[in-house]
């Protein structure tokens, strides 16, 4: 995959338009199909040189056309090849019909296929454009193949995965390898599709980069180039306030640890100074556990309003262990003209009247980053969360538009979306980040970025990426404390 395209994330509809634009520019579409099919041939031979038989399952569209070309390439290489078809190949049209006519070997209906030891299956039934449930005969075929354990190489996307949402449409192949073209699709990286793709390889089949870039939307895979220039090299004259002052609000005396984790993470992530703002009841507990992080007694809205006159306070984290209720709402509403990370209890506190928060943020014009997991997202955005027709990306985008905030929709396939429609999918996070306190650490990193002046979207995507990189560095036995120590420098 070309470096200038490697971070694009292209929806199936966008890819269809890109294919059309390539053809309109004078590029022979069958040449592109041939390049795709031969890329699959090469991948299959490279990964499975000892296969006893390659079984190519060809569908009723262009994905099937790729399969016929792959089958011919495998046969010409000397491999034993068997082709099984869905539907009547005589009804194929365009490039797929030409690919079928170039296949000189026999073909049997998919109902005749029974997996055998030594088989390698090439899945060319349906590509990333699938948006409907599979027919029963295909579901049964997929179940037989998955149960057999024979390896599967998917063309474009494992059949049964919706390329837009990553959802399974009845059943889907569990593949060892997936070969796609020009750029990955959302279904490659959104769950559950991500878990079924195996290793993903993106091949350049000859569509000019200018056409691909022009047809791509605002989706990207998260990577450091997206926040390049916001890392902030330290000048000789830099002092702690120039690096930013982060404030983390603590909960009551029985729930102070989460705030301290966020504060420690913010300090490690680059904030020049960090203060834990705490009520009087928890003041002693927090003071006894903190050293480089300062402590400030803030019991209510009056004290907070007075303190906010200090414009050196760069950003705020509200929610980790704070408690659900009126105090959280009052504090959040008072900060809607500042830079605020709203997490955990701060989010849930608005579940009965989220519009109050959204209106205040629209009026205040501050920079807010909200970091909900699935449950918190459903509490704050019930209608969006309940729309099964939307992908996780589309849900995050809709929530960002509705709330006027950057949304970090957490999970193994974290999506970050901005109110202007920009969105990224993060793919560097290891599964062992799913541990107590991990989200508190993430909130602190976002807060540190906001404190140093990064825009909300860049602050959020950089934090999510650094959080994932820290998890990979800390390893499977990480705790929230060791995760903080593994936060890498911002690039």
TrEMBL record:
Q: Per the record, what are the reactions this protein catalyses? A: (6R)-NADHX = (6S)-NADHX; (6S)-NADPHX + ADP = AMP + phosphate + NADPH + H(+); (6S)-NADHX + ADP = AMP + phosphate + NADH + H(+); (6R)-NADPHX = (6S)-NADPHX
Tell me the SUPFAM superfamilies matching this sequence. Ribokinase-like, YjeF N-terminal domain-like
What organism is this sequence from?
Ensifer adhaerens (Sinorhizobium morelense)
Every YjeF C-terminal domain range:
223-491
Report the residue ranges that make up the YjeF N-terminal domain in this protein: 15-213
Q: Does the keyword Transcription regulation apply?
A: no
Q: Where does K(+) bind?
A: 63, 123, 159
Subunit comment for this entry? Homotetramer.
CC cofactor note: Binds 1 potassium ion per subunit.
Q: What is this protein called?
A: Bifunctional NAD(P)H-hydrate repair enzyme
What's its job? Catalyzes the dehydration of the S-form of NAD(P)HX at the expense of ADP, which is converted to AMP. Together with NAD(P)HX epimerase, which catalyzes the epimerization of the S- and R-forms, the enzyme allows the repair of both epimers of NAD(P)HX, a damaged form of NAD(P)H that is a result of enzymatic or heat-dependent hydration. Bifunctional enzyme that catalyzes the epimerization of the S- and R-forms of NAD(P)HX and the dehydration of the S-form of NAD(P)HX at the expense of ADP, which is converted to AMP. This allows the repair of both epimers of NAD(P)HX, a damaged form of NAD(P)H that is a result of enzymatic or heat-dependent hydration.
> Which UniProt keywords are given for this protein, alphabetically ordered?
ATP-binding, Isomerase, Lyase, Metal-binding, Multifunctional enzyme, NAD, NADP, Nucleotide-binding, Potassium
Record field: transmembrane: none
């Amino acid at each position: 995959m070309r470096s200038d395209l490697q971070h694009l994330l292209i929806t199936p509809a966008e890819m269809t338009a890109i294919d059309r634009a390539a053809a309109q520019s004078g590029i022979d579409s069958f040449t592109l199909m041939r390049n795709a099919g031969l890329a699959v041939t090469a991948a299959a031979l490279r990964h499975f040189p000892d296969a006893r038989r390659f079984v190519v399952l060809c569908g009723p569209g262009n994905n099937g056309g790729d399969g016929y070309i792959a089958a011919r390439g495998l046969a010409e290489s000397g491999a034993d090849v068997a082709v099984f078809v869905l539907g009547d190949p005589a009804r194929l049209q365009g490039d797929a019909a030409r690919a079928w006519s170039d296949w000189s070997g026999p073909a049997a209906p998919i109902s005749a296929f029974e997996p055998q030891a030594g088989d390698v299956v090439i899945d060319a039934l349906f590509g990333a454009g699938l948006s409907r449930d599979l027919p029963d005969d295909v579901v049964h075929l997929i179940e037989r193949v998955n149960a057999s354990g024979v390896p599967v190489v998917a063309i474009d996307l494992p059949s049964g995965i919706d390329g837009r949402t990553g959802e399974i449409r009845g059943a889907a192949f569990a593949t060892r390898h997936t070969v796609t073209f020009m750029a990955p699709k959302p279904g490659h990286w959104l769950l559950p599709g991500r878990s079924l793709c195996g290793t993903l390889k993106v091949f350049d089949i000859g569509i000019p980069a200018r056409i691909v870039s022009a047809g791509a939307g605002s989706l990207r895979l998260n990577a450091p180039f997206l926040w390049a220039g916001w890392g902030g090299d330290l000048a000789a004259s830099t002092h702690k306030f120039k690096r930013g002052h982060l404030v983390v609000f603590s909960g009551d005396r029985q729930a102070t640890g989460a705030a301290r984790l966020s504060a420690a993470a913010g300090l490690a992530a680059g904030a020049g100074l960090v203060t834990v703002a705490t009520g009087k009841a928890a003041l002693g507990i927090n003071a006894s556990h903190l050293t480089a992080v300062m402590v400030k007694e803030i019991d209510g809205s009056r004290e907070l309003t007075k303190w906010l006159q200090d414009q050196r306070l760069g950003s705020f984290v509200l929610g980790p262990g704070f408690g659900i209720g009126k105090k959280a709402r009052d504090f959040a509403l008072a900060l809607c003209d500042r830079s605020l990370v709203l997490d955990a209890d701060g989010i849930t506190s608005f579940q009965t009247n989220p519009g109050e928060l959204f209106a205040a943020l629209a009026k205040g014009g501050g920079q807010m980053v909200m970091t909900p997991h699935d449950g918190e997202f459903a509490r704050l955005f019930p209608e969006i969360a309940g729309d099964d027709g939307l992908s996780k990306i589309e849900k995050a985008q809709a929530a960002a538009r509705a709330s006027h905030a950057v949304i970090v929709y957490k999970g193994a396939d974290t999506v970050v979306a901005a109110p202007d429609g920009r969105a990224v999918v993060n793919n560097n996070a290891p599964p062992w980040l799913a541990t107590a306190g991990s989200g508190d650490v993430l909130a602190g990193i976002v807060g540190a970025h906001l404190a140093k002046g990064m825009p909300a979207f860049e602050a959020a995507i950089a934090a999510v990426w650094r959080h994932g990189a820290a998890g990979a560095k800390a390893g499977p036995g990480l705790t929230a404390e060791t995760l903080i120590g593994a936060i890498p420098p911002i690039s």
